[in-house]
Amino acid sequence: MPVSPETQKTIALVVRHNTVGIEEPVRGIIAFLQVAGYRVVFESETAAHLNMPDIGAMSASEIGEVAEAAIVMGGDGTMLGIARKLAPYALPLIGINQGRLGFMTDIPIERTLPVLAEILAGKSDSEKRTLLEGRVLREGVEIASGLAVNDVVVARGAGAGMAELKVTVDGHFMYNQRSDGLIISTPTGSTAYALSAGGPLLHPSLGGVVLVPIAPHALSNRPIVLPDSCNIVVEVVSGRDVSVNFDMQTFASLAHGDQIVISRSPHHITFLHPEGWSYYDTLREKLHWNEYPSGEGKLR
């Protein structure tokens, strides 16, 4: 019996812009989903960059209201952008890697169709990730806000000297820090900028937030992991061209005395992975933990 438009399930496609040769695999996924009985729509920015007028387009909010899932073809940056928009809708996300690293877009492009078939048949591992939300206050008035899947970063300008930041946690003074900036990261973001600045890896299931100073003036100023129930306030004491960004995608310029109030978001994102997926497999593959210098470090 054919599926009626009223009962047909919708799956959204989000594709990284300006990816050479992407049209053929996109067409293949669309055909596969349509044969399986799904209605396929593009996220509106994807539709604007792909010349496929036969496929409908929806805004992120419309997708969140009607879709069963969103398939994201790109790198982690593509996933970050759409995940923040869809977070209020708890829509499952399936990541197909068209980027370089692919911590969140973990399905290899060559395995797309068989893995999609398994996931749509219910053979998948579901994983929830927390987000941070931040509000920028100037004299008590909110002037900007944002969500972060990876991190909230307060940093000085490229040509400026060190910034001084006052950090308070749950109303308790932590420190005044002189540095190039401060990274406030989720467990998801602990494998991103926070890791390159010397922060620890946090398993995604941990309820933690990591604070990582960027090139601190005092070498004793080390990263710290806090409960994600904390309310963190970062105040700009001094420094030129200081700004705050959320996942490097939303920016706000800061003035002395501005406060960034950061807490765990009530929303979360859900990734659907191939059945048997392992976070540790991902770490070995992406961070090359299984590699040794030639002839060294192997058990004999």
From TrEMBL:
Subcellular location: Cytoplasm
EC number: 2.7.1.23
Cofactor(s), by name: a divalent metal cation
Residues spanning the membrane: none
Coiled-coil blocks: none
Single GO BP term: NAD+ metabolic process
Binding locations of NAD(+): D76, G77, N150, D151, R178, D180, T191, A192, Y193, A194, L195, S196, A215, Q249
Active site per UniProt: D76
Pfam families: NAD_kinase, NAD_kinase_C
A GO cellular component annotation in the UniProt record: cytoplasm
Catalytic activity: NAD(+) + ATP = ADP + NADP(+) + H(+)
SUPFAM superfamilies xref list: NAD kinase/diacylglycerol kinase-like
UniProt KW keywords: ATP-binding, Cytoplasm, Kinase, NAD, NADP, Nucleotide-binding, Transferase
Any one GO MF annotation of this record: NAD binding
Physiological role: Involved in the regulation of the intracellular balance of NAD and NADP, and is a key enzyme in the biosynthesis of NADP. Catalyzes specifically the phosphorylation on 2'-hydroxyl of the adenosine moiety of NAD to yield NADP.
PANTHER family: NAD KINASE
Protein family: Belongs to the NAD kinase family.
Protein name per its UniProtKB record: NAD kinase
